[in-house]
């Protein structure tokens, strides 16, 4: 977090301040602030979403390993350690964290709740709920997780079909939504005097607020 905040302050504050000190136009400095403030957050968000998506695709294989371990008499915590040992990140790191937390005395239910809060995965929430219920009322956990694994596979397949069918529409929305932002940032550097009216006059401020609101609604 400290590194991220340092980079964010540097790109969103220090670089535009240096440009302003060197006599750059106001519009260029504002453009640097927008780009510098948005770039680190966007990069982290993209990496986070990519990691969570990969976690979701690994979950089905992890359930297979857990079911096999339960059939040979291992505990659920040991089965999670098997997943951590045999699979790659990010699921290996997350499951190992749960295993270590339970070894240090944290209740399994609490550790699973923390896991759900970190990953925000609805499929994993279904798995954890089944584990907690099974610990309370009993039952064959291996069979329960097998059924859940089939449900998760069907969900993944359905989500893939939906993404395929809506890919063109979503891409068009991203392009049309980003086009006004791209144009105004481009003009800030190519023709700053043309854009300065938005930032130096009262009517420009009003138009800019209206434009931002319409852009958000339109996107």
Task: Walk me through the structure.
- By secondary structure, the protein is mainly α.
- The protein has 9 helices and no strands.
- It is elongated and about 75 Å long.
Topology:
Blueprint: H1 2-21, H2 26-71, H3 76-86, H4 91-103, H5 108-119, H6 122-137, H7 141-190, H8 192-200, H9 202-218
Terminal CA distance reads 30 Å
Proportion of strand residues: under 5%
Major sheet details: none
Counting DSSP E segments of at least 2 residues, the number of strands comes to: 0
Mean pLDDT, as a whole number? Answer: 86
Provide a count of the helices. Answer: 9
State the share of residues found in helices, binned by percent: over 70%
Oligomer: single chain
Order of helices and strands: HHHHHHHHH
Low-confidence stretches: none
**Gyration radius, in Å:** 25 Å
Structural class: mainly alpha
- Which descriptor suits the 3D outline? elongated
Q: Which characteristics define this entry?
A:
9 helices, 0% strand
Summed up:
It is built from 9 helices and no strands.
